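Posting this for the archive.
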Amino acid sequence: MTALEDLPAWTAFFVSLCVLLGAAVTLIGSLGLLRLGNFYARVHAPTLGATLGMGSILLGSAFYFSVLETRPVVHEILIAAFVTLTTPVTLMLLARAALYRDRTEGSTDVPAAEMAEDLIPPG
């Protein structure tokens, strides 16, 4: 006997759809690592894929356990909040570290400092 015997078919379909959608979005984000040209373009794809894919997978997980336990299970919300908050921060730290390293080494693949200053409004 497993818990799957108690799970209605419509719930299993919804959970499967969420998990497959999350896996597909995460895979597409991972493929961005292969397709995009340099580090600065490449860093965005897995960040977006991980965040959106994680959200879909956690939605399916929360729904699955809520139906089986007949009460709302919300610990997935904590996981989603943690990943959603830490992923963009990690992206910014990695990009800034790479930008600093490339500028100090004199690499030509980085945006010029003057361009970044032009985007900041005076004030």
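The CA atoms of residues 72 and 85 lie 23 Å apart. The radius of gyration is 20 Å.
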